[in-house]
Each structure stands twice: as structure tokens, then as C-alpha cells.
């Protein structure tokens, strides 16, 4: 196998993505438009004249130097089921180095370990267990394990513990509900009693869910900002979501949606959906402190799941969770909310770094840490 890597057009990139069963929306060419603070490039992998891989590369410049971190979020999109991974990554590295990269960060889109809902519930109930890392996974994927071992042998640096390293990362621990072979009835049956009761209560209370448009983003953002204050995280500005919609919406009819759950004219919960192929993500969510008893969050999630099922999706992805299952962890409620859907926790291999210039790589790490 002799593979070459070169820049490709947006059309070539999109055609490759659309030929896949699933790919992260962070690897679509449109995502470059959602990240205007980064420069970008679409890359193609070629075996002869046949394109066998693609990636969106985001470049973040080191201040005062024309040198860059090359970041491939949840990519590249390759056939990772190989024992010759170096032959795929080496030409990419050479290309990025020529473009001025001092370091490369990739996020192999491989599900490595999976924990079923029953396993997570048992871990939460066991006071001696504080993290999913202490719990034997129900499934460990051999392809991902082989890729993990190859990356180490090729000199790539494994993911750093949470809170360390420059802040350009995606969550390693996530949660999803598999939709293949499911019906609305089986999805409901797979949920816990609290989820089923809350869905029913939302319906009886008169909660309605509709798909909004860009003009509704300001309303969504007001609730999102309230959620940030309540839950103690820093919210993204309204302009971020406007840019995200403007970038993703033209690329494909179903790439992004805004869902609004309302009760008697009041917005009580809202979510943003993204979709590529058979994969639907719950990308962002928000809810009000008022009228929590009408269960708008459950209603909007249920509508998104039903719509994902109707669209023929294979997976409904609720995105990030922490690995903690400790009863005194403030994030435990998030994993309990998601595990109530009857889905699974899973982890990718995480994000791996290859320093091409160790001095500049370290300087960038320090710079990002100071920025917070």
C-alpha cells in the first residue's frame, strides 16, 4: 500500500463523508465555517487515484510565530482496521509539517470500550466505585485496542488526564442509545421508570415540541445562559450558535436543527441536533429553572429520539459524560439522566498528540493553559 495525502476540494471532501455510514459532524467541511478563529484545510488520502480517507484539519497559530497546531477533531476518517497504521499517518504528518505544523492532534473515531446501562447503575450503587475506569467494560473493541497499541509504538502521545494539556479537546467518555432494530415502543421499554413517567407527565401537562429556525436562536440562548449560571459552566456567546447554524445548515438539509419545548407559551427546554449519515447527536441543551415539573427536558429528548428513529439513524448520541460515578460528584446527575434512556456509555481512544517541534509544542501548551 502506497498512500499519498494532499489537499482536496470541499466538494471532494463532502462526497467522501456522504459515502460513509457515519462520520462526526466535526469532520464535515462545513465545520470549518463554524470555527472562524482557526484556519482550515480538507485533506484526502489516496491509494493511486482512489480516495481512501479524508479529514478536516483546523490550524491554530502560535502567537507571534507562523507555526500551527494541526487539529483533526474526531478524525481522520480512515479505515482504522489495519496493522499498518503508520503508512496512513506518516504521509499526513509530512504534509502538515510542510504546512508549518509544530504538532498534530488527532481523535481516532473508534469506540474502544462500552458499558451497558445495568453495569453503570450497579457502579453508581456501589459506594466503593468512583469511576468507570474501575469497572470492567462490557465490550472492548479489538480494532481500537490494536490502533491504541500502534499509536504508542509510532510515538504518538496518549490522552492527558482531564484538565491537563492545551484546551482543544472533545470528551472521551460519552453516552448513546442504539436505534438499529428499535421501534418507539422498544425505546420506551428500554428506558427506566422515571423517564417513562416524565415523558408521560410532559404530554399530560401540555408540553409541545417544535423544530425552530435561526430566528429562535436568541430565545434558545437566553435559556442556555440561564442553564450555564445554574450549572456553573461558561456559556458560549449567541454569535457562536449563529455561526454554527450559518455554517452547517447549507451543507445538508438535516445537518442541524433547533428543538424547542414549550408550555403555555413559555420555553422550558431547548436542544440542538446535528446529523451525519446514521448518527444523530444531541449537541447542546438548555432548560429553565421555572416549570421544571412539566419535564420539558424529557419531552424534547424523546422527540429527538423519535425523529432520529424516523430518519433511519442507527445511533442517538447524547455526547459527553464524565467517568465519575461517585455519589458526591456534582456531575453524577448528568450520567444518571442519560443512563435513564437505557443506552450505553462508551469511550473513544481519546485525543493523541504528535509533537513535531517539542519546544514550540510546549510553548503552545503553556499559552493555552494561561488563557484558561
UniProtKB/TrEMBL annotation:
GO function terms (MF aspect): aminoacyltransferase activity
Keyword Transferase in record: yes
Pfam families: FemAB (PF02388)
Keywords: Acyltransferase, Cell shape, Cell wall biogenesis/degradation, Peptidoglycan synthesis, Transferase
Record GO biological process: cell wall organization; peptidoglycan biosynthetic process; regulation of cell shape
Acyltransferase is among the record's keywords: yes
Family: Belongs to the FemABX family.
The protein's name in its UniProt record: Lipid II:glycine glycyltransferase (Peptidoglycan interpeptide bridge formation enzyme)
Lineage: Bacteria, Bacillati, Actinomycetota, Actinomycetes, Propionibacteriales
